[in-house]
């Protein structure tokens, strides 16, 4: 449904509007910070009318959530480092760095605050992670390695990174990530 | 700093105003739903002026976050069921039921959306949980039982419940909670 700013499908006016608006949000956030964003400001920068934005996205919160989800969409498969445990640690470390950065935290909040309840959008963030983990698990199985279940990695690695990023007084550290990965590797089995 | 609606300290006008406003939020949410809340509506119900609310809380999001944190504050120690593993499962099951309910999800979102970044308020939610878990762990140690670290319970039980409640397409189930508890019990040691 959404077009990525970086991977715009050529053609359709709708796709071009979407890309221009996403890009405007991105640029304005970088220049003025997220708190300064308004629909009229974004519209002016994207060269569309505010009503175009309201028609397509409803309100600013919804637009910001849409941009955040697109930003979270992985652009490539996780790096192949030659072994499952190091693939997972490398991926988890990168995910942790992103989610504990100001930008990453802002995205998590944008996605959560747009609409009440669990939405297709919040689920999409979770599905992106599950898909990345599944790629690593499949690669591990193909190598004949012992691997954990995708759900076990979601619960044991992704969940504590996000929970600590959102709620903990002290943000998670690289050592925490290492411990999460080690703990989930203890449940790995050959399939 | 905050006064609980249910446990109002007698005396101080400030405490009475806080209790009245919290109670108004609670009653109006129940009657009209959260989306209908406005500062003037809450002020009228609480018998204070809107400017009293703005002066003390800044804005509606901040007030709702304050109410949510107070609601999350545990009223009693976790039930003593005679053994650590069943104490933890009983507590986790109750926490899971609360956090996956519409009210619980609304509270999580209220706390997260009030102010950007990790705040004393988001940390307080996490500290409430850690304190409840510490009570169970200490009780287990006193009984001579093998117990996990408090942090391991936060990462292995609380985090996946909250992450799934906020992001997963399918909410966590009682069986998931059981599995989270079993997994963390595997790391228990006698101290």
TrEMBL record, chains A, B:
**UniProt keyword terms in alphabetical order:** DNA-binding, Transcription, Transcription regulation
Write down the superkingdom of origin: Bacteria
Molecular function, one GO term: transcription cis-regulatory region binding
Q: Which organism is it from?
A: Piscinibacter gummiphilus
Kindly provide the name given to this protein in its UniProt entry: TetR family transcriptional regulator
- Tell me which residues make up the HTH tetR-type domain: 15-75
Any keyword Ribosomal protein?
no
DNA-binding region coordinates = 38-57
Keyword set includes Transcription regulation: yes
Name the InterPro entries on file: Homeodomain-like_sf, HTH-type_TetR-like_transc_reg, HTH_TetR, Tet_transcr_reg_TetR-rel_C_sf, TetR_C
